[in-house]
Amino acid sequence: MATNYGSLGMDIAEGAGLTIDIYSVLLGTSVTFRALLTDYSDKYETSWESESVYGRMDEIQTYSGTKRSVSLGWEVVAAHEDEGKANLHKCTHLFAMLYPSYDTGGGSSGLKGPPLFKIKFTNLIMDAQAAGSEASPHAKDTGLLGTISGFTFEPDLEAGMFIPSAGILYPKVLKLSCDFNVLHTHELGWDETGTQRSGFDHFPWGEGNAGNEASSGGWGGDDSGAASTEASTEAAESEMGGG
What CATH number has the domain bearing residue 9? Predict the structure, then answer.
């Protein structure tokens, strides 16, 4: 009976769409966890190149790019020894996904494929182009593409261990975390009319009409004063190297 408990918990999580699915693009396999979140943050950061000019107080700022990164932390809980062992095996496979493939032909080895990933967690981590209530819960189909800088594996020592035999430990609770650097597979940003580019309309969490709201005066605001600020905005863009 004990060996069925973990499967039952996963079935419930999958039925509710509350799983973290991590898919290796290189290997074509995935590892799935119940979404027992301990940390989640979605960071958007712009990069600017600064140039100092003699006699000018403010540096000239030239736009370089915008990047997105996601930090994710979750717990992996074992209700019994068999599940604790299965959780360690699952982590073993997950961590092995961080390594590349090699071409060993001709008597020498060379790098063949990098360890790219897709992650799917509800609508908060997903490919925005796959938005919709019928979207697959599997990262292979609807996951967000990117690279993982590494995993942190931290057994909860206060929760204790299962000890099946001398020298063997299976943690009752594992704390996992990772930093995910997003590689979007659709266009980002706006065209010259203020309309979202292809694929940007559901960015980033599957909610639509971003372009329609922006072009109609903003999100909850109005377009009063827009004409009076247009000239100063253009001037600022020219000074900053953006126009």
Answer: 2.40.30.200
